[in-house]
Amino acid sequence: MRKSAIYKYLVFLGILLIYPLFSNSSWLAIGTTFIIYSIVALSQDIVLGKAGMFDMGHAMFFGIGAYISAIMNTVFNIPILWAIPVVVLISAIISVLMAMPTIHLRGDYLLVVTIGFNIIFQQVIKNNVFGLTGGPNGIFGIERPSLFGFEFSSDLSVYYLAFFVLILILIMIKNLETSAVGRAFHYLRLDNLAAQCVGINTRFYRLFAFALGASIASIAGVLFAIQYTVISPESFNLMQSILFFTIVIVGGMSSIPGVLLGTFLMFVLPEIFRDFNTYRYLVFGVMMILTMILRPRGIIPKKFGIIPKYLLKDK
Amino acid sequence: MYIFIQQVINGLTIGSIFALIALGYTMVYGTMKFINFAHGDLVALSAFVGLTIYTTVVSSFSNSIIAILISLIITIVIISIIGYLLERIAYRPLRKAPRLSAVVSALGAGMVFQNAIMLIWGPNPHYYPADIIPNKIWHFGDSVISLIQILILLLSFFIMIGLYILVNKTRTGRAIRAAAINQDAARLMGINVDAIIVIIFALGSTLGAVGGMFLGMFYRGITFNMGWNYGISAFVAAIIGGIGNIPGAMLGGIFLGLFNSLIAGYISSTWADAFTYILLILILIFKPTGILGERVAEKV
Amino acid sequence: MKKKITGSLMLLMVLALIIPIGLNAKVVKIGVQAPITGKYANEGQGIDQAVRLIVEQKNAQGGLLGNKIEVISEDDEGTAVKAAFAAKNLINKKVMAVIGSYTSTCAAAPQKMYYKAGVLQTSDGTSDALTKHAYWTFFRNSNPNSAEAIFTANHFINQRHYKKVAILSDYSSFAVGLGDAVKKEIEKLGGDVVYYGKIKAGNQNFTPILTKIKSLHPDVIYFSGYYSDGGLLRSQQVQLDIKADFYGGDANDNVDFVKLAGSAASGSYLINVPTPSLLPYDDAKKFLADYEKKYGMKIPSIWTILNVDGLRAIMYAAEQTNSLDTKVIADFLHNMKKPFPGFTGPLSWDKKGERIGSSYFAYEIQPDNSYKVISK
Fold it and tell me: Which residue, among A224, A207, A212, has the nearest Cα to A63 in the 3D structure?
């Protein structure tokens, strides 16, 4: 990683570190949710941005994480942090089972399939299967965790818990980018056929990207359950999936700063302009169109080494 | 038995509206290779525009059917112009951009439409007058069919026949098909592809406007966020039929309408959505290009 | 030197800005948490406007214990997450009490936050879950689902002598709760629930499920969801020529129900606490007239007035105890000897914050769209 890039990340993390000093409790809650949404958006980016698979149902894995941890906590009284390994495992398995028969589908068809899975997931939790998901009410009374005797009962401690997880995820994604897996993702996004020809097992890497993205999103789901202690179906519906999808495209596919900025623009900005209730989403839609026209590759597009301009023209 | 016939009538009615809207998705996809997510909200907009025009012109006509036809025509003109502007402003600058940029632009445009409706007409539902079509029903056996259902079925049928003739038997239609297969080659053959795309958006908007007004007349209540629901269903219908394929969208719409009715009627209404999407996923797994196959040249 | 003068001038200006705020510190803040935009904007805006009217009238009479009342509104858009944000904002702005929200989900989501902050909350949410925790800060100003279900079952089985009942709800927590409760009570009285299903709110095409219901030949179709779907259900029921009575639960009692159902509205039934226009009390009638005069529209529904009653009871308690301490007010409301005469009837609460006593009506909608009371 170049030095200047490291500084930029340190500045970003530094701002997040001291942010709670300058915010009241409602802005602290928005800050925590911003971090959680950033994690989901980063995981969406692994599937959509890095591996190039059109996934428009990612909120489902976010929801699976939240729901499984909430059920384990409220029904079986398991401390919620202990749920994380189970959550990661289950969502990875579900994502692989889902992706196995559908992963070969091209672009937009995969997009439709993932939308379909998200809608099926919604109906499952709304119908209160096995009496576990609480139906449309969702699940109430999730207990906040404690670790080595420290209780994460205050909102501030939850903020820093989320912040800590974000740092881990960022380090992991940075490592992924420079690893063989990251390069494989890169090739299969650019040209599936060519990737196959140079000996990349495209099917394996596609499934792997899906499972990885799903697992990270489900961890964010656990954090979401910890923050709100109440979860309900509408936090994981298709609109949310579209939000995460849009964050990645608007910010810049496969670009970490882009995804973080995208999360800020798509989630925090509407909160700042709460007072303009009725107009804000209209302006928001116009901004989305303008952003795409002016920056079709996203606001902070990813630069891959030194590639001549003419090679970047299409795709 | 009458229950089955009734469900078929129900399914055909909603299915033909799905088909009209699905055609808008499929024609745009066929030539531009991207999902026009704003189409559903355009349909909602036409329901509102149609109602406003109807309430202004109705007093000048003695017959409400004539008033409806007049407002339908005016609505079609207005919505076609808006469809053209949508293409010109939000999509044309993105022709050469990555495909997903156009998708996000479409999502943004949908958001603009939805919120514009809310700002102009307010957040509360609006209602088509109850007497807009005489409330007449016919019995055969224990099944019933209403006048509005017959009108919707007949009009949709004729519109789709007309569209089929236009696309398959005319010069313009040949140009549309050529542009769908390969834009560059079509351009080399002297086809004005930009003009064809404008025609496609105008046609799609026209069909959407008809669908929107049918929804208003059939269900009466229209809300600013209704477009999304119908948009996603119609889009699924287009995929089931084979995206880019015009007869496919018609078939897909009818099929989806029937499937929804029969599932809700015979299996479970609480799981109807899940069944619909499981069916969609199964179709795509076993026939990845839809029932009639897609008509889209691979973009390489 | 120049700098010093500018500096002291600045200081003076800042002080001038701060001091008046300090002098006006005696302001009692009342929060409104309601769906001001979104699906239930109609109801949310009604609650907001009605609360502002009551406060305006109270301020004209000299305010609460001599303090001016200020209303702060936060939009929860009818979703749980936004409700949590809205509640945080209200707590930060140090409101004494919160009126709302309209839906049970949005009232339940921030309930614990208000409890921890010691902020009083009064909501019309009817879900039984709202009083489960018995938070001392919570006061339901309506009656819970279970009370409505008991009335409905008794009316169906003992007064109308229905044998076969079909029940529909949507997926909202409120409608499912009410639907479940009605099913349980009807079965308790020996009625036969031939069908119990859910519709997707906003779906509009209910003909498949209604055709299914037609094949079961019920005597009555009961819908526990909201008017925006109820009106359509009724209209499509008539279109499909299904000869069963149609009953809507309380959330169908909205002027838009009639608009949606069109000519089919006539002959359908609603079950609810008295509608605004049927309230027998003079001060209630005066309030309705004031509201219509000020905003140029009718009050959207009884829910608005129930919420207003919650606010009025809290103000009454503050005056009786001569205190603005929420704990003192809550204690008073929990132990009232004599109920407070509200617009919607006498108000008093048990220890869980459940409103004591209930009065439900069953109405038949007449061809001129007026209501005829058929059972009290």
Answer: A224
How many domains in chain C?
A: 2
User: Long-range contact list for A185-192, CB < 8 A, 24+ apart?
Assistant: A185/A46, A185/A50, A185/A51, A185/A52, A185/A209, A186/A50, A186/A254, A186/A304, A188/A51, A188/A52, A189/A50, A189/A51, A189/A52, A189/A254, A190/A52, A190/A315
* Chain B residues close to A246, C-beta within 8 Å: 104, 107
Residues C135 and C211 in one domain: no
Q: Which of A117, A289, A314 sits opposite B105 (nearest CB)?
A: A289
SS3 A2: coil
Identify the CATH number of the domain in which residue C115 sits.
Answer: 3.40.50.2300
Task: Give all strands (DSSP E) within A96-219, no chain letters.
Answer: 146-147, 150-151
C-alpha distance from C106 to closest chain B C-alpha (Å): 19
> Cα torsion for B212, A115, A47, A308, to the nearest 10°?
-20
Of A233, C81, A300, C239, nearest to B130 by C-alpha is C239
Find the domain containing C322 and state its range.
26-143+279-347
What separation, in Å, do the N-terminal and C-terminal C-alpha atoms of chain C show? 82
Within-domain flag for C191? yes
Q: How far apart are CA A86 and CA A92, in angstroms?
A: 10
Encode burial over B15-30: b for 16+ CB neighbours within 10 A, e otherwise.
bbbbbbbbbbbbbbbb
Whether C370 is in a domain gets the answer no
CB pairs under 8 A between B and C: 98
Q: What is the pLDDT along chain B (300 residues), one digit of tens a residue?
A: 778 888 999 899 999 999 999 999 999 988 888 889 999 999 999 999 999 999 998 878 877 788 889 999 999 999 999 999 999 999 999 988 888 899 999 999 999 999 999 889 987 788 888 778 887 888 887 788 988 899 999 999 999 999 999 988 999 999 988 888 888 888 888 889 999 999 999 999 999 999 999 999 988 889 888 898 899 999 999 999 988 888 899 999 999 999 999 988 888 878 888 998 999 999 988 887 788 876 655 543
- Contact A219/A87 with Cβ under 8 angstroms? yes
Question: For chain C, where are the E strands, in sequence order?
Answer: 27-34, 68-75, 97-99, 120-123, 138-140, 164-169, 192-198, 220-223, 245-248, 269-272, 340-342, 345-347, 361-365, 371-375
Nearest to A88 by CA among A70, A113, A62: A62
User: For residue A235, which residues of chain C lie inside 8 Å, CB to CB?
Assistant: 80-81
Query: Which of C272, C303, C319 is the endpoint of a domain?
Result: C272
Q: CA A134, B227, C208, C190 torsion: positive or negative?
A: positive
Instruction: Please answer yes or no on whether B288 and A109 come within 8 Å at the CB atom.
Output: yes
Q: Which CATH class is domain B2-129+145-286?
A: mainly alpha
Q: Measured between CB atoms, does B110 come within 8 Å of chain A?
A: yes
- Which of C272, C301, C325 is where one domain is finished? C272
Interface residues of C toward B, Cβ cutoff 8 Å, are: 37-39, 41-42, 197-200, 202-205, 207-209, 211-212, 214-215, 228, 231-232, 235, 239-241, 256, 259-260, 262-263
CA dihedral sign, ordered B118, B53, B25, B148? positive
Q: What is the dihedral of CA A42, A45, A51, A55, to 10 degrees?
A: 120
Which residue from B249, B236, B225 is spatially nearest to A114, judged by alpha carbons?
B236
In a domain, C359, yes or no: no
User: Which residue from C202, C146, C147, C195 is spatially nearest to C168, judged by alpha carbons?
Assistant: C195
Say which of B35, B99, B273 has its CB closest to residue A119. B273
CB B50 within 8 A of CB B58: no
Most A CBs within 10 Å, among B111, B229, B294, B299, to test the A interface? B111
Nearest C-alpha in C relative to B135: C239
